[in-house]
Specification:
115 residues; alpha+beta; six-stranded antiparallel β-sheet
Length: 115
């Protein structure tokens, strides 16, 4: 029995992140309320996060579609938290870019969001 405990401890220790750069999931929530709505949220140990809610609009009509709203964020290499809040509906994907204090979102990221 003692040998089993030693092997169990070794297995746990070897499964632990060996690199401080490893990212862990610190929160995950998901709710599928049926066919007409959903939501999810996750957050990682590096500060990245994403939250989204979607709801079926105009159900049963020719204009039926899903309206989505949410936001995602990440910590840039400069240590600044960058956030993009968005709506996606019949008018397309509409991001609102919120820059962290003292920094600007890298132009390559901006170009991929708007172009």
């Amino acid at each position: 029995m003692k040998l089993f405990a030693v092997f169990a401890l070794l297995a746990v220790a070897s499964a632990a992140p060996q690199n401080p750069q490893d990212v862990q999931i610190v929160r995950y929530d998901s709710n599928n309320s049926g066919l007409d709505s959903y939501s999810f949220a996750w957050e990682l140990s590096d500060g990245s996060k994403h939250e989204e809610q979607g709801q079926l609009k105009n159900q049963g009509t020719e204009n039926e579609g899903i309206a989505v709203q949410g936001q995602y964020a990440w910590v840039g290499p400069d240590g600044v938290l960058y956030t993009v809040t968005y709506v996606a509906d019949e008018n397309g994907f509409q991001p609102q870019i919120e820059q962290g204090p003292g920094g600007a979102i890298p132009s390559a990221v901006v170009a991929s969001l708007v172009g």
